[in-house]
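=== Discrete structure encoding ===
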Amino acid sequence: MVTKRKKIIVLSVMMLLLVATGFLNLTLNNQATLQASNNETSNLSFFASYRADRDTARDQQLIYYNSIVESANASEESKSEAQASIKELAAKIEKELLLEGAILSKGFEDVVVSFTDNFVNVIVKSSELQEAEVAQIVEIVQNQTQKPIDNIKIIPME
């Protein structure tokens, strides 16, 4: 009778351990999955957020320039400068979109490009870039902007 009781206790303890192991396994797997999806979401959010912020800033610039162009109080010189700024902004937007499209066509998952008069920044969704990939990006940027390689910054981002 004692041996039967010991068997029941041992089997009960083993069942409890099995249930506890299963629970811990599910809990830890869910946490790992949530962390991985949060990292992916934050990366996706970075690129989407960057584009949204860039678009908002440009919309505000266009509103400002258009208000000068349409203002009855603005001088002709101010109006022509505002119109020139609108054309420059449109050219910049077109060039950034062209660069992003060309870089994406090389197989990168996502990319954002921004540039000033002197520098070009390329942020690529990648944990690490190979030398050949950097060379592809540099070639695309140089062909479109004629900027020297020292003025091109390529930033991989996971």
Notes: The beta strands are 111-115, 120-125, 152-157. DSSP finds three helices and three strands in the chain. The chain has a mean pLDDT of 85.
